[in-house]
Write a structure and sequence with these properties.
This protein is mainly β and 539 residues long. It is 4% helix and 49% strand. It has a six-stranded antiparallel β-sheet with strand order 26-37-28-33-34-35. A six-stranded antiparallel β-sheet has the order 27-36-29-30-31-32, with no helix packed on it. Strand 24 and strand 25 form a beta hairpin. It is globular. The chain starts with 23 loop residues before the first helix and ends in a 6-residue tail after the last strand. The relative contact order is 0.13. Bound molecules: beta-D-fructofuranose (FRU).
């Protein structure tokens, strides 16, 4: 038996196991005070105006996403006592329209024996009785005190984390319709430690037919990234079914935050999308450039079987900072939020009293080519405060035109006439400041890709990321971009969300211009609109 593990008999106890070791209300009150102390000192230079972030402290994955009794709820992994990853809580915001958000009390603090070192990621689902349930991972360090003792590895939290985890799946139920507090029911799925190499987490639950299913990420005893499938009739007692999926790449040792949902293709056929945040894959060409990489495969699934992929692994988002997305279905719409993971130390915003934001909510559909499309949900047009229509713009060889003198929170919609442009690279310099720093969002004709290039940024890690365009997109002669610039980030939606790039962009001091530029050739922009963005109410 591994050091620190107690005797375990099976996967699923007959009833939830509950061992309270701390008072939850006291732990929550302390956590609120921790966040408030950091919020009071917060530096807002990069704090988002229209993205979800905590008032203070560190956040990572979106959790428990749902639309319940008239409100949208977004929970997220929260460390309330510092701006680095630490003992995990669940922070919470809610909204009636996805545009105006309200801070809610912190939902979970680690207070049970089974989660004493962290209330890790999980999801929410509405049960047969119309009541919501939360499934999450209880985390303990296997040696009882810290993350030493396992294999050292680079993790998604921009720090070295070891494989010294001991993790089990947990259940909680809300106390009221507003989801302002919840009662923990305890452990529902134990960890068979002889079959698992420490990582065993992030449950996602759905119903197919009359059976409830749960999948979560597992590192098998021989260190392969897997997703396991459990089933249940009553949502409380769960039985192991099978390995739902094993990542074909032997370097991939863990699939964090797995997701699994059906979706219709353009002919109305049902496909299943499997999503996960893979740990261990090596960079190869334009792929897997981040420390860990979140993506999906499209295929088929029947209850009782394994997932059968029909595509290769593709990235959800090609930017520098996208990880741990979670989707949920509301009235037939599959909506996803991702975490903009900073990945690389040092992280500039950690000095500012807060760290980490979520992306805009995106709707997942299958395009005509059968691939996944993720576009901002239609509601996001409601964030526009006013619009400056620049009409069409032509730049000569190596030309430049200022689009905005000081744009901190804007959306730009533009269509490039590729057929009428000769520039080898052209696009927008955003967060362009007097010190010469900027982040470049460009179409690169030599590689036929849209890039976000941070080589000229004065703060944070640099490098560029590049999203592919299909032959059909290139042959169309047009390129549509929607570029969302917030105070410390940029999200680029290419051709209605066929590709997306999300990256932090830590602007320097002073006014932040946006410039349209063309390099080595001319640029014909058919239309360009700039919208100023409203605040979502969390500043
Ligand atoms: C992904 C992740 C999850 C885990 C959580 C802990 O970023 O590592 O696998 O539940 O973060 O904060």
């Amino acid at each position: 038996m591994k050091k620190g593990y107690s005797t375990m008999t099976g996967f699923t106890p007959d009833a939830p196991v509950l061992h309270e070791i701390k008072n939850h209300s006291e732990a929550l009150a302390q956590a609120e005070a921790g966040v408030a102390a950091m919020a009071a000192e917060r530096n807002n230079r990069w704090y988002p105006k229209f993205h979800i972030a905590s008032n203070g402290g560190w956040i990572n994955d979106p959790n428990g996403l749902c639309f319940y009794k008239g409100r949208w709820h977004v929970f997220y992994q929260l460390h309330p006592y510092g701006t680095q990853w630490g003992p995990m809580h669940w922070g919470h915001v809610s909204s009636t329209d996805m545009l105006n958000w309200k801070r809610e009390p912190i939902m979970f603090a680690p207070t049970l024996e089974e989660e004493k070192d962290g209330v890790f990621s999980g999801s929410a689902v509405i049960g047969d009785d119309g009541e919501l349930k939360f499934y999450y991972t209880g985390h303990r360090w296997a040696n009882g005190q810290d993350n030493t003792g396992g294999d050292w590895q680079v993790g998604g939290h921009a720090r070295i984390r070891a494989g010294g985890d001991w993790q089990v799946q947990m259940l909680a139920e809300p106390d009221n319709d507003e989801l302002t507090s919840a009662t923990k029911r305890g452990m529902i799925i134990d960890c068979p430690t002889d079959k698992v190499d420490h990582h065993y987490r992030d449950p996602k639950v759905w119903k197919t037919g009359d059976t409830w299913y749960m999948t979560f990420g597992v590192s098998s005893a021989d260190k392969r990234g897997q997703m396991w499938l459990f089933s249940s009739k009553d949502m409380v007692r769960w039985e192991y079914e099978r390995v739902l999926f094993q990542h074909p790449d032997p370097d991939v040792f863990m699939l964090e935050c797995p997701d699994f949902f059906p979706i219709k293709d353009k002919d109305g056929n049902e496909k299943w999308v499997i999503g996960f945040s893979a740990m261990g894959s090596k960079p190869s060409g334009f792929m897997n450039r981040n420390v860990n990489n979140a993506g999906y495969m499209i295929g088929t699934w029947e209850p009782g079987g394994e997932f059968k992929p029909e595509t290769e692994f593709r990235l959800w988002d090609c930017g520098h900072n996208y990880y741990a997305p979670q989707s949920f279905n509301v009235d037939g719409r599959q909506i996803v939020y991702g975490w903009m993971s900073p990945f690389v130390q040092p992280i500039p915003m950690e000095d500012d009293g807060w760290c980490g934001q979520l992306t805009l909510p995106r709707e997942i559909t299958l395009g005509d080519d059968g691939d996944v499309v993720t576009a901002p949900v239609a509601e996001m047009e409601g964030l526009r405060e006013d619009t400056l229509d620049h009409g069409s713009i032509t730049l000569d060889m190596d030309g430049e035109q200022v689009i905005a003198d000081d744009a901190k929170a804007v959306e730009i919609e533009m269509t490039i006439d590729l057929a009428a442009s000769t520039a080898e690279r052209a696009g927008l310099k955003i967060h362009a400041t007097e010190d010469g720093a900027y982040t470049y969002v460009a179409y690169d004709d030599q590689i036929g890709r849209v890039v976000v290039d941070r080589q000229a940024m004065a703060n944070g890690d640099r490098g560029y990321r590049a999203a592919p365009l299909t032959d059909t997109e290139l042959a169309s002669g047009k390129l549509d971009l929607r570029v969302f610039v917030d105070r410390g980030s940029v999200e680029v939606y290419v051709n209605g969300g066929h590709q997306v790039l999300s990256s932090y962009s830590y602007a320097s001091e002073g006014p932040r211009a946006i410039k349209l530029v063309a390099e080595f050739g001319n640029l014909k922009v058919e239309s360009l609109k700039l919208h100023h963005m409203k605040s979502i109410g969390l500043e």
